[in-house]
Amino acid sequence: MANFFDEMYSDGNSSVRPHYNEFSNWLNAQTAETIARKRAEADLIFRRVGITFAVYGNDAGTERLIPFDIIPRIIHAQEWATLEAGLIQRVKALNMFIHDIYHDQNIVKAGVIPAEQIFRNAQYRPEMQGISVASDIYAHIAGVDIVRAGEGEFYVLEDNLRVPSGVSYMLENRKMMMRLFPELFLRHKIAPVDHYPDMLLDNLRSVAPVGVTDPTVVVMTPGMYNSAYFEHAFLAQQMGVELVEGQDLFVNDNHVYMRTTRGPKRVDVIYRRIDDDYLDPLAFRADSSLGVPGLLSVYRAGNVTLANAIGTGVADDKSVYPFVPDMVQFYLSEKPILNNVPTFQCRKKEDLQYTLDNLKDLVVKEVHGAGGYGMLVGPASTKQEIEDFRQRVLAKPDGYISQPTLALSACPTYVESGIAPRHLDLRPFVLSGKNVSLVRGGLTRVALKEGSLVVNSSQGGGTKDTWILEK
């Protein structure tokens, strides 16, 4: 991956990009001892506050600190303006798509998307067919993963519309940088992100059921053993609302209530961080102890808002991702501002053959995979790993897509050997309610292993503060 766009340097690392000049001057004035001390302080504070994530798989039950890098990722105002416009456009189209497939299905009738891509999709919920949801909004919170490649062009890598996580790290990273290096915020005009919880609460209140003027909002968590539990508790605390589990809620007279010390209290909006399958044991998985019996019937009646909506996952499945630019044109009659990464759909005979012939050069992903699991990064894999993956693809072609291995942009990062470039992505968080909006920032994830393109925390990735410079 020798040829990649460097966020901080241009001309083969011979000059600093203008929007990094002030930071570069500051960085060059710091001693190694100062930086080492600040990094240790950050680790100590993150651990003390409990900013960790649970690990699944071989190390199940353990918790890790997500590595935090003190060199920020800086984006100038003009670039952000394009990104923001593209993200708002994309999320608008995605919400229109989800509403359409659960109602008139015009995009299927028009032949833009094959019917089997929708109705055979594991995330499609026939129970949602014909249900009206508040303001026709399904993805109230979207985390859209953006990568930069080539000469610095932005691409959408994937859309996370079910229960997107990571916004708490965006907020805590900013607090940490302001605590460690207050002088940097005097030197730069950096767009704030700390108002995100207020924006989120306003957004959730705006999509309350019809007729509810003072809605009660709660955050619903599967519990403390979930990998993102810190975030669930953090957001509830920051919004000033209750953090609840399924056992704290019950259905009566076609409404949802919360058990409190003062008696039952009606709940109007549930920001749920639980997958569809576990929400209501009467409608989905009967063995779920995480959900609320009867919740779907209340939802169908329009007496509670779920954010995000049941069935939203059909739009963030990787097999549907290739069609999002078509959605933008179909619903908005606009040219997409942000491009997809070129994608081969292994369900197609010619795409399957191309993928099998070029496995060593491609990234191959399970259409339902997440967190960096269920994927092959061809250039970083052994011959045996490639052959094993070939058999998996051959056994279930429609379960995979492939993409070229992009030379993701990189940013200088503190690693064991000192400062070195490491590849990264960006996850801005888009809120949809009465309006579509986002804070000027996002979660930058960085692959800390040299040459690695996998930024997920579960795969050893870290995070950086993301600065959007104001004009």
TrEMBL record:
SUPFAM superfamilies, sorted: Glutathione synthetase ATP-binding domain-like (SSF56059)
Domain Circularly permuted ATP-grasp type, first and last residues per copy: 72-447
Alphabetical list of InterPro entries matching this protein: ATP-dep_Glu-Cys_Ligase-2, CP_ATPgrasp_2, UCP005522
Any Pfam family: CP_ATPgrasp_2
PANTHER family on file: BLR5612 PROTEIN, SLL1039 PROTEIN
Record-given protein name: Circularly permuted ATP-grasp type 2 domain-containing protein
Organism annotation: Collimonas fungivorans (strain Ter331)
Lineage, highest ranks first: Bacteria, Pseudomonadati, Pseudomonadota, Betaproteobacteria, Burkholderiales
